[in-house]
Amino acid sequence: KRNSSNQKASNQAMSFPHQPLHVTTALHDSQICTSDCSLQVIAITRLNNTAVACINSSQYEEAGQFFRRALNKARQTTFFDIPEPKPSLTRQLEVSKSLYIYQRGEYDEGMHAFSDPLQVDASLVTLHSLTSTILYNLGQLFLRINDNEEAASSFMRALQISEWGGGDRSKNSLSGVSVMAILHNIGHVQYRNGHYEDAVRTYAKALHLGKNSYSKSPDSLLEVATTLNCLGVLYFHLPKADTAKAMELYQESLVIRRAVLGVECESIEIATTLNNVGRIYYMRAEHDKALELYRDALRMRRRLLGDEHLDVAATVYNAGQTYHQRGELDSAMQLYQEFLRIARQRLGPHHRDVAIMLKCMAQIHHERKEYDNAAALYEEALAVGKAALGSFHPEVASTLNKLGNLLYEKGDFDSAIRVYKEGLDVERKVLDVFHPNIVVTLTNIGQIYKLRGEYQNALRLYKEAVSIQRHSLGTAHPNISSTLSSIALIHYQSRSYNKALDVYQEALRIRRDAFGDHNLDVASTLNSIGLVLFKMELHELAMQSFHESLRIRRRLLGNDHR
To answer: Are 253 and 226 in contact (CB under 8 A)?
Structure first.
């Protein structure tokens, strides 16, 4: 459930490598456009427009062939050093499984502005605008076959040529692609690749361009609103989310759209931004506000897109999660079931989001202690997840861990250990060696060994968990004290009282440093130390520890607390 510093608008170079432009003549293209050149422009335009029609009908190989012919002709006509296009297209059949759901493009955050390839009018284009438009369209083609590297290269070259020619900002797309459109696509590729800081710089440049445009037409203002929303998305997704900045950008975007379109206007873009704002409130645990935004976004999306659209499903899922967090399990389950129906219909039965939703529904049954229903859904989620993502994926590991928890709660320790160990194998292959999820699984298995009296096996796992925690969290983090307490308890149950006392005292020191003297965890550790001292027949010291624990608890809980 799931992100950074404010970065100012910058004209820094983009992060994608590209070759410099080589200009072979000092003449501007408008000075060299002879009648023969004009005929070439007409021929190149026809090839571009045919290629765009092929893209729109999903004939990607044919589109690539027409773009190659167009660029070859442009190379003969213009003075730009145009790179040789790829001889053939290699389609990636699916987007990387590691991408966040919105990065994959199945649901909309408003990051898909300027995503259509452009046809042009030969009477309106110049050589530089035609060439940059072909490269831009080629980038759109590469995006559709999930070749982000080639898409980025094409967009970067389009940007160079467009900016060299003065950055045609005409809002008539028939005259060629705008710098704004190119920047949006460069930023979107950076976002898809997880390069959020680079994407922030790119969209900030687009925002600067839009706000300083000589045109203040409604279309120009709406482009600014779109860019503000995109920047908000990026600040939301930064490794350390800057939700305050994201909220500021979303609100400014909404103000502009409503000023241009009317306060009561409902549009897909407004619904998308409302959904984005709702996610910020959800992250902040302001669930009432989140639900209000989701309801508005869902009403608009249902009316504008229809009940079966994936973006309707996205908001349904978000609202369902919010109800789940509020403990309104019936409302959450109803929305989860609606999402599942749409996802199966639109994405197929073996899609990762089908697996995720099955797991969410299983969690509701789990929380209700409806163990059989929960187990059946966890198993189904596991089967779908493995079919969609393979056996070694963090989502598969997460489902295994939850199924292990359920089996543990049922008292089926043999099955729980088997499932936990399978999950641990997955985590070790797909997560960083010091990832906190590995600690959780190690301690879960250790707990079962402890309950079985297999103390050496339990100690081995708890000690590995502590080693990971110390490396990733430092030696004084309070989470370490919980694992130390488990180790100390095993020593106590094994009658290794000196070892137990040493470990409990380390846990006590960490908790006092973290929380101060007046804390219930501190009181609990003092009580445990008292028990160890009693077993060691150090009765006076034990009594002191018990009294100190009691004093803290009375102060925090009151004299009459059970």
So the answer is: yes
